Amino acid sequence: MRSGLFASVLAGLLLAADGGPARAAEACRVADPTGTPLNVRSAPGGEILGTIGNGRDVEILETRIDDRGRAWVLIRTPGVGAAIGWVFRDFVACRR
Fold first, then answer.
1. What is the distance, to the nearest Å, from the Cα of residue 16 to the centroid of all Cα atoms in its chain?
2. Within its chain, how far is the Cα of 5 from the centroid?
3. Distance (Å, rounded) from C-alpha 77 to C-alpha 80?
4. For 6-54, how does the pLDDT look when each residue is reduced to its tens digit (9 = 90+)?
5. What one-character-per-residue DSSP string does the chain give?
6. pTM for the whole thing?
C-alpha cells in the first residue's frame, strides 16, 4: 500500500505544468549576438536577478510566451536541479 501511494505521488510530480508528461531538459548554450552577458530574470520580462555569460551551457526547463508574443525560457545549469531564472529565448541556441 505504501509503495503504491509513493508511486502515485511521484507520478503526479512528474507531470509538467501543462498536464502532460514531464520532458527531459533541452541542452542549449547562451548565444547573445551582442556578445554581452544575458540578463536572467525572475519571470518572463520580470526583475533582473543577474546575468549569465555568453557561451555558457544551459538546459531549458520550460517555455512561456509573453503578452507581446515573445518566447522566454526557464533555464538551469546542466544537471543541476534548481532553475537559474528566465531569459529571452532568441538568445539561447539549442543542439538538434
1. 12
2. 29
3. 6
4. 333 333 333 333 333 445 678 899 999 888 899 999 999 999 999 999 9
5. -HHHHHHHHHHHHTB-TTSSB--PPEEEEE--TT-SPEEEESSTT--EEEEE-TT-EEEEEEEEE-TTS-EEEEEE-TT-SS--EEEEGGGEEE--
6. 0.72
